[in-house]
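Let's practice the habit of predicting before peeking. Look at the sequence and jot down your guess about where helices and strands might fall. Then scroll down.
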Amino acid sequence: MSKYIAVDLGASNGRVIAGDLESFQTVNRFVTRNEYVDGSYFWDILYIFAEIKKGIKEAVKLYGDKIKSIGIDTWGVDYVLLDKSSRLLGFPFMYRDHRTDSMMEEVFRIIPKRDIYSTTGIQFAQFNTLYQLASDKKNNPEMLDAAAHYLSIPDLLNYWLSGVMANEYSHATTTQLYNPNEKTWSWDMIDKLGLPRRIFHDIVPSGTVLGQIKDDILTELGIDPETRINVTAVGCHDTASAVAAVPVAKGDRNIFLSSGTWSLLGIESDKPIINDDTFNADMTNEGTVSGGIRLLKNIMGLWILQESKRWWDRHGKQYSWEELSEMADSFGPVNWRIDPDNALFFHPSSDSDPMPERIKSYCRDHGMPVPDSAGEIVRGIFESLAQTYRKTIFTLEQITGESYKRLYIVGGGSRERLLCRLTAEACSIEVSAGPAEATALGNILVQELSAGAISSIDQGRAIIRKSQDIVMYGK
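Done guessing? Here is the structure:
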């Protein structure tokens, strides 16, 4: 049986996974490292690529010539610029960097906010590629002048593996520079912002085989250069891959929550839904691996808990994830809430500005009881997320005219049993939790579909339903 390599890069951790939809294993796990240099956050992209190559080597050791292809998915919006010799013009900025703090307002003076939404259907967030490139135009125009190529992070990694440059569909849709009705880059907006058209490549569908891993990389890794491993542009945006693995049966209504550093809650649609209701609700229209649309809301997610744990870890309180959840469950309901999407919680925390203190400050400023213990803080984060999910589901029901009876939670957050239970209770909905490795599975699903090993996404989802652990909560 053919095997596949799925590289799944999240904002905190990366995994290289090898196998198929029925059985797979992690062959390399690493931190997706970012560095703070000269006042800005950058992804350590060379280190990340080196870790990917380690994973390829281990996968080939494990499965040999059964490996047929590799696919890479990552977080959205971030990118690199390359010169005419295809060399990096700089390390990629991390999307939480401060350089876009005031760029949305500056862009709105050039293109009205409503016009941007009518064209792209994308939720407004300061980290969108649109505002990052506007920052480049304002603060580093020499780099844009020298640029010959725009590549997203997965586009770059695919290029380094295969030697082929392309912009993959699902990732391109996250930029707020893509027109989902015309199904191409929004050239009018690109021109108005003074961005060079030449840097953008053709947008290729998810599942496109770009080429094969280059001989020099195989030789570097001690792999026979005669080995042929396709490089497939999967759903290169990690949420697109995760949603591909939602274990919904054909014909069933699908409302999903991809739960991890971010919470992405939405539905699948054949066409973009761009109107007054979605604009007022700040909903986003991003691409599915089948070429359709995910109408969803970006919610801050487990980032707030991750940053809190990181601070506790550094200060001698080494709680496991399981301990934190147990402490939160034992504490019981809290009498305060935070807005997970408040800008206070967006940037990385530090010793002088820790996330737990931000939560306490939010409560003080809003006249609520101030939490004390770690268990109370975790419980409050979970309850706040559950309430945000409830509001978002209600909004989606108002927009679509549908009534959703089951929420499919996939990704790492599906392992958080307390969060799943609180979500089922708050939303009065049945929750299907799992698979936890949905992003990697969706990545493999697209590779298998591209290779002809399965005939449809529905067939792949049926395999996932049978092969993965799914836990039910609520009704």
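How did you do? The first strand starts at residue 3 and ends at 9.
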